[in-house]
Hints:
This protein is of the alpha+beta class. Helices cover 43% and strands 17% of the residues. The strands form 5 sheets. Strands 14, 16, 17, 19, 20 and 21 form a 6-stranded mixed sheet that branches. Strand 6 and strand 7 form a beta hairpin. Helix 4 runs antiparallel to helix 5 (93-113). The radius of gyration is 34 Å and the shape is elongated.
Amino acid sequence: LTFLFFIRAVNPGKSLKSTIIYSMMSSISLIYMSFSWGSFRYAAEVLGLFALAMVVLRRYTPRLFLTYGMTLGFMLFIGTEIPLLGHAFLIESTTLALLGVMGVLIVMELARLAPSTRGRLSILGVTVVSSALIVFGLVSTNVLTGSLLQGKFLATVNPFVRSNIPIVASVAENRPSTWASLYLELGSLIILAVFGFFIAFQRLREGDILLIIFGVTGFYFAASLVRLTLLLAPVMATLAAITVVELGKPAMDIIQQAVIFPRRKLRFTSKVSREFSLGILLIIIILVVPTFINAVQSAYTPTTIASASLPVRAAIPDWLEALSWMNNNLPHSSVVFAWWDYGYWITVNTGLSTISDNGTGNTTAIQVIATGFLLNESLAVQVMRHERVTHVAIFISYNRGLCGSSGPPFCGYGDDSKWYWMVRIGNGTKINTPMGVATVSYKQVVTNPSTGASEYHRLVTIANKTSDERITSNFQNVQVPTSNTVLGLLMRSSYPGGLPTDRNDTAPSTPTAPATPHFFVQDFVSSSSYVLVYSVRYPDQPLITAQLTPAIVKPTGGTTTISGTLTTSTGKPVDATSDNIPIILESSVDGGTKWDFIANVNNVTAGHFSYNWTNLPTGQHYVLVRARWPGDPAQLLDIAVTMPQPLTFM
């Protein structure tokens, strides 16, 4: 509608009143699009390119100046009042480009009104100086640098940067198109549209120029991003329709025995038969009909949610069952922790809150989800507690004949394959823990250079101390997260064929027993076990104390005893000896920035521990000492850390 009304407005045959009305209708259509779709920027840029093309082709008219100014001016005025855009929309690179085109049109109009060549040269000089000053001002104030394309928009214009933006590259719809995918979507319309381009170039009317710009840019973006065939479809259909009309009209004239060529211009005397014309129409029908058949067949494909997000043409009710259960059983205050792909489904169908959904522009929220799924239970609940999460939903494509009876245990259509992107998106995320701020990163380790086999490790850095754990294993020839990650723990504990026996999938206290979730309780399983919902059972926050006896020692040769207690929040003593989870003693000589290991205290009986520290650091005026306990998921006890205790040397 935006393009249709704009072309009507610039039509030289329209009155001034019609031009104003159509310009406003074009602007309103663009504004309506901006409320729900960020790609309204593309439609606006096409109008800008059209105006530039008219200037280059020396077809500038005051009507073009009026139409462009009213359409874009009213859109920018209203756009700043849209909450999603705000006034920052005015300094986006796309908006600055539109304003630049408006500046070109102003110069053209002033040049048209200039009475002499000298006046036109004066306008040109003022334009050059003004442009230089504007560019200098934008660069010096960092407006131009800060307004450059970013994220998915940058990845669309320049697909080569996509690999550096994991959150964009992780979506299958954001991958480049292939000729096969384009032909599957458009069919024979591609062939007809090529002839439509040729006809449009031959006629080169205002509408043809817009179609050419729309077609060229639409084809580029559709090739860059497979889901943008949505943009390409209308222009391809229009160009194909032009071809059908231009080829079909002469054939129909022949069938109706109409004279389509003056006899004096004919270089042949033989008459074209009606059968020949019918043959032309038959060829056109043969080219067009398969595309419509494919469209009709696509209409019978179930929506993504009806087929449970699986690539099958059948009704699989798992997600509908899960959403219905959430809607009927979870309180409205619940917060569901799920991968962002399912955010809209959960929010729209249940009214519940999620951490992120398909429209989330804050990439930090998606990083938090990715990191939470790939942390162990004790650290993951720290993330979830901060986000006030009450439930966790996962979607696992267990092989219940889905990918063949002899296929892998996981088919890779759900979170069982998205862990690969969680690693990349969550890399470098910082989270708050009782021990301090932790930086979570990942690395890929090649285990067999000849075959390229590899595994992934999780690195957690707290106070300059880094832990390194393997978090993937080859389970029945499929690489999946191990049970020292929340995702691996939940998906494996529900695996219908039995639990794996990888060393990272066993309980720490009993290495021969499979790991089971402690902080997560399974509340719902869909009919095919594809969708699982767990409630979060947050651990109790234990209390740990430490004291130094004595707290003042000699600079050399001194000793001190570190003793303390470990109890639950209600004061019940914690026996950490039976579960073989020691209390860790640490010291810091730089005020708590870096903590050095002192000893593990394995004997924690009746909630009491004690350690005689003899190897004290030298050359210090004082050091800080603390005790921390990693927590015990089996007893539903969280991580505990004491306040730093000063040890003075004098």
